[in-house]
């Protein structure tokens, strides 16, 4: 659905996007992660045809954006980083206007407007002007205008930014539902959101793709992946040394007198072995849990070099 090859964007001396390549298929929900200023918005604006690339190729459903911008505009729904302007327009009038821009008139225009207002929980504010809406409601209007023509491709720049927890939940469910038969790219700084809805993640830093993986794949890069934490009710003599004897255990971290974390060699599974051992030795176990690995940690690790450069500058 989306095919990006060696995309570059320069703003004067600033090389904001460098040789970015990736593709997105139907059924993919791709998350763009990256520090502030990494190039996420710039990349999205190029894919939606709002910003011409300095070099590189973008194909939407096989058609080059440079040659057929109209096709891209039709196929894509875009939620930009900042919620819509047209502040003096009423919600319903604005969405009807967008529907007309998309080529729908009369009853079809009204049907689509009503339906999208319902989906985005805007019906009760439809007669309010956009500038008088709260931030979260303006974000919903942005979402509604992106969906009104039922596009095959959705590009959403921080779609849940500013939404309350209930609405975040609703929008995440909507994205998951739509992701089944669309191609979706979204950017976010919320890592739990990535875990909840993205089938794939691209991490961008300094304009460059530094990881393109599934969330599970990324978590496997964490040193905590498959580590097992054991909490005991009371102290057991030599507990750390005993845990260390388990075959694929690499090292034991002592968190307190009664709490230990066992790290496996090469991310192997050690949970069963730890359970067996504590059971056979009749240790007073409070809890035992295996760690999946944490995305925030992997993110920080992968983007650390860039953060250091920023501090140095
Ligand atoms: N029109 C522009 N003119 C000059 N520089 C720009 C322009 N647009 C973006 N940039 C620069 O390009 C870089 C990438 O910006 P971009 O908005 O793509 O980052 P981002 O990853 O979306 O960050 P954030 O997480 O803060 O939204 C930044 O250094 C930014 O200052
Ligand atoms: Mg941005």
Sheet with most strands: 6 strands, mixed
The share of residues in extended strands comes to: 25-35%
Low-confidence sequence ranges: none
The end-to-end distance, rounded to whole angstroms, is 39 Å
Structural class: alpha/beta
Q: What fold name stands as the CATH topology of the largest domain?
A: Rossmann fold
- Total strands: the figure is 14
Order of helices and strands: EEEHEEHEHHHEHEHEEHEHEEHEHH
- What's the CATH architecture name of the largest domain? 3-Layer(aba) Sandwich
CATH superfamily of the largest domain: P-loop containing nucleotide triphosphate hydrolases
Q: Give, in spatial order, the strands making up the sheet with the most strands.
A: 6-7-8-3-9-10
Kindly give the count of domains: 2
CATH class of the largest domain: Alpha Beta
Mean pLDDT: 92
* Individual helix count: 12
Q: What is the share of helical residues?
A: 25-40%
Describe the global form.
elongated
Task: Describe what this molecule looks like in 3D.
The chain is α/β, with parallel strands linked by helices. The chain folds into two domains: 2-219, 3-Layer(aba) Sandwich (Rossmann fold); 228-291, Alpha-Beta Plaits (2-Layer Sandwich), CATH 3.30.70. The protein is built from twelve helices and 14 strands. The radius of gyration is 24 Å and the shape is elongated. The structure holds adenosine-5'-triphosphate and magnesium ion (MG). Residues 40-41, 81, 157 line the site of magnesium ion (MG). Adenosine-5'-triphosphate binds at residues 11, 14, 16, 34, 36-42.
């Amino acid at each position: 659905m989306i095919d990006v090859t060696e995309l570059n964007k320069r703003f004067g001396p600033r090389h904001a996007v460098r040789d970015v390549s990736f593709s997105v298929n139907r059924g993919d929900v791709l998350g763009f992660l990256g520090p502030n200023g990494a190039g996420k918005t710039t990349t999205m604006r190029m894919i939606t045809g709002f910003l011409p690339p300095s070099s590189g190729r973008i194909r939407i459903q096989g058609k080059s954006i440079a040659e057929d911008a109209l096709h891209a505009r039709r196929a894509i729904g875009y939620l930009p980083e900042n919620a819509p302007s047209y502040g003096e327009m009423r919600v319903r009038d604005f969405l009807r206007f967008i529907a007309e821009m998309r080529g729908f008139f009369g009853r079809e225009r009204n049907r689509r407007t009503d339906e999208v207002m319902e989906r985005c929980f805007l019906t009760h504010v439809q007669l309010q002007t956009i500038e008088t809406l709260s931030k979260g409601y303006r974000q919903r209007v942005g979402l509604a205008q992106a969906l009104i023509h039922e596009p095959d491709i959705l590009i959403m720049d921080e779609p849940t930014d500013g939404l309350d927890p209930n609405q975040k939940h609703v929008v995440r469910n909507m994205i998951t539902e739509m992701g089944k038969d669309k191609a979706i790219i979204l950017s976010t700084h919320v890592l739990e959101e990535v875990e909840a809805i993205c089938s794939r993640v691209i991490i961008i830093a300094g304009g460059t793709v530094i990881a393109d993986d599934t969330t599970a794949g990324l978590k496997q890069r964490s040193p905590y992946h498959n580590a097992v934490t054991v909490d005991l009710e009371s102290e057991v003599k030599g507990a750390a040394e005993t845990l260390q004897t388990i075959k694929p255990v690499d090292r034991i971290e002592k968190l307190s007198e009664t709490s230990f974390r066992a790290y496996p060699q090469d991310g192997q599974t050690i949970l069963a072995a730890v359970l067996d051992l504590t059971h056979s030795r009749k240790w007073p176990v409070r809890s035992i849990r295996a760690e999946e690995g944490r995305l925030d940690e992997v993110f920080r690790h992968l983007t650390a070099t860039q953060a250091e450069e920023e501090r140095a500058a």
